Input
Amino acid sequence: MAKIFDIQDIPEEYLHQVGGKARGLNQLIKFGYTVPQAFIITDIEDDEDFEEAAKKFEELGMGEVSVRSSATLEDGVDFSAAGQFSTFLNVKTAEELKDAARKCVDSLHNKTAEHYANTFLRSAECQMTVVVQKMVNAMYAGVIFSRAPMRPGYVLVEAVPGLGENLVSGKMSAQQYRVRINGTKKVEQMPQHSLLTKAQAIALGDGGKKAERLFGMPMDLEWAIDEKGVIQWLQARPITISESVTINELDCDQDASSFVYTTGNIGEVMPGAVTPLNLSTNMFALDWGVRQTFIELGCCDESTPAYAFLSSFYNHMFFNMTNIYSMNHATYGTTKESSDVSICGMVLEGLPGSPMEDLPTLKRIKNTIKFAKVVFGGKEAKAGMDKVVSGLHFDLTQDMHGIYKQIIDKFQSLNWAQYWHYRASYYSGGQSALLGKLESDFEDKDAFKALVAGCLTQNEEFESANVLRMMRQLAEKMIADKPEVQQYNIQQIGEYLEHEASSEVKQEYAEFMKRHGFRGLREPEIMSKPWRDNLESFYTSLKSVLTAIGKTSNRVEKPWTEFADELLSHYKSSLKRKYIMSLINKARKGVCYREYTKSRTIYVLDQFKQAYRRLAAQMVEAALIPDEECLFFLLQDEVGQLLKGDQSLVKKAMARRRIFPQQQKLKFPYAQLGVPQPMIAPEPDGRTTSIQGTPVSRGIATGIARVVRNEKDASELKEGEIMVTTCTDIGWSPYYSIIAGLVTEIGSALSHGVVVAREYALPTVVNASNSMTFIQTGDTITIDGNIGRVTINKRAKG
Output
């Protein structure tokens, strides 16, 4: 026979068996919180028990109610089992209540719950209690984390309009309020167009922190504000490991209010959100490389913390320009403007420099000498990178503990690879910055930028352009071997290369994979597979090159020397012209050093990718993780903890993976002061007809636009179309064979994809803000690579 108790009257001896949800509500009432009327049904045996519950519901005259599960293994300290059992809202009648309660009990044995138990709990029995609670007519609702992730002393309040179920179920994105309770109570983070007043946010934060103190542990609480403005408390449970996961869980733990951050450069290198494993490996190494360089140049010291130069917010990466500006006070010859140009390709107007005071004169002179060696040390950077590459090797025949030990022991190789690449980038950026100082001599600034861009084309030593050259050579040999291959689909191309191709084609294919098989789309992301391991992606790229073979191009490839001559013609002094020509040659060499070390860095990262892929496969086989991808949502040190038996981290990884698509959609201002906040993208208005960007590859092209957000979009590109995308990396370059022009939302003259675009005389405009919003696939557009303008000539039908 079932037992039915009002929520506040659950006997002490029953609290251990009524489940976390019922127990949490009972304790909230005892602690003095306002909780909506509720009762529970426990020890449920048969349908007669549901009849008794329906009678109780009618006797109390509760109106609309929610019917929720409260299982004994739910809402515990280690695992929440949140969402694994059934919940029903707006239940109005006794019949509906009986049906809902019956389904709550049945959900104890549904496939979702059983899979959860097998994966995480590895536990035996679970008992079900049902909670019937009066519905709140909520104006606003949400959840509270009494201890904000990565923000000690703060409470995180999340709010949505209406029912909190919209937030918990993922139907709505929440507004976030970070509330400081200790000391002076204040809201540090107040969203634009906020739902809550500051007083309401502080009251909720106060309630969350009080609950932590009374329960004796960090708590996750659900709340609602009713039509009278009263806060109603709907649920309380301990914060499990997975609930500490939020969209900005892994934000840098630093006071960021006085720092200038930019997506410049890093937004091209690593567009979108990064996985936790990539954040703690490749992105850590990139920051280490910058930090080590600045330590050697006397701009900071060994106490400088990790992620001081490359910081993470919402799993997106940003350069900390304020710390970059320390160079301007530690050396001579650099300024805020030159630092901006070296990272962003433009001056960041209206943003402050570094508050650091100038170092003593003698110290700055010494640092300047060191800096000069870096700026002119391209050959040294290449040699350093070669040494790193030659000394790295993994033994993938070892067991998972042996492989993880190798990863940790050899991790310094990735740090040094990023260091030498950054050194080579300084050589490249330094030469280009010197050329940039000539801009004041030109009235037409965009024309000057286009001339400089032209001076950097047609470079035989350019590593990234070699990718497309070798792919084209492979395509030509395939067509010579079997002409109909040009009409093959992706699957047929794969079957041909694997089984039907001539020995000459197979040799060319093998050569390509040997030299460039470790490259691919989003290659700096450790989770992304290279072409070698993602053949469908490679065949898709190869198909675009096959399509272009034999087609007549109307692009006129102007020799780089003509761009140089045009630039030099602005100067009368032969000495000045000779000096500028030497800068041009050094800049061309610098691009080669930069691209070579970029390629070698990706090669080094690929060695770690292979090690982690092998480790992930072994951990799946050992039933430590449910699938290989799960591993990439752990930090590097968490992988070690999981190998030692901390199974709770699997739940954390899966929670992070669930919010990753939401993080990927976020966009940020190019530069801003303080913690970077996602921006609201403008709505397509149908009225915008012109977008101004930066010209980086000369020429004019008119064609049908195709907005490319992913590889599927890219595979649909047709000959003569204009690609419009966020930015490009080496993985996009095969499509340059068929497109007529390129427009990107971010980028610079030295972007990897841009340099390849210039090699193919492809009219290109970068920094065309919101072009993916204002331009739709099917629009007819004209891009002018001479002045950086994109014009929408005709809208697509429909």
